[in-house]
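Section 5.1 Outputs to date
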Amino acid sequence: MDATPDEPVCFSGGPDRRKGTPAGTPRIPPAAAADWDPDFAQYVRAFRSSVASAPAEEGRASGSNLLGTLARHPGLATAFLGFNNHLLRGTSLSPRRRELLVLRVAHHRGSDYEWAQHVLLARKAGLTDAEISLIADGVDTAHFTPAERSMLAAVDELLDDGTISGRTWAILSAELDEHQLMDLVFTVGAYSTLAMALRSFGIEPEDELLPHLSSATEGRGVPR
């Protein structure tokens, strides 16, 4: 039975975490909210109210550690969050398809923070716990549609080779329009960048994310 949206669950899949900064030692610690630039603080309030999943009380993690770290560079953070707002709110991809991509990126890039946060969003988008676990298992599972399997393959190809293969593109272009194809590539790129930032800066998952980390990644002492 699948858990309810606010019920913690651990998955057999999840990020393939790799060697790097030990957990618990952020390289760039988050700034306290009281120390944020006032314009950035106002921007974040507007950003969170604009995305459909914003309030923590609706089952979304607060993101306080990530936002606190971004607050140390308000200009960069504002530009990135504006881009991210399109991927969350303005994208031509369905929420289900977006979360398939993001979870595969999180697994491929070894970011347990990104994985845990998007487990919550994926469940809200209608993915079952079994489907979420399968995202980490590979792209050949028969459970997903051919288009969904090709989207998962596209993630791996983009991150490994920097391009989508001709075979995968042919399958995707028969299913997706131009806007969706473009949103797919930019979603993978944005969340890959975010995963690298999360791990490189040593950003720790907030307490509310901890129950949603993959059991397969616990105790390995590698970055979030």
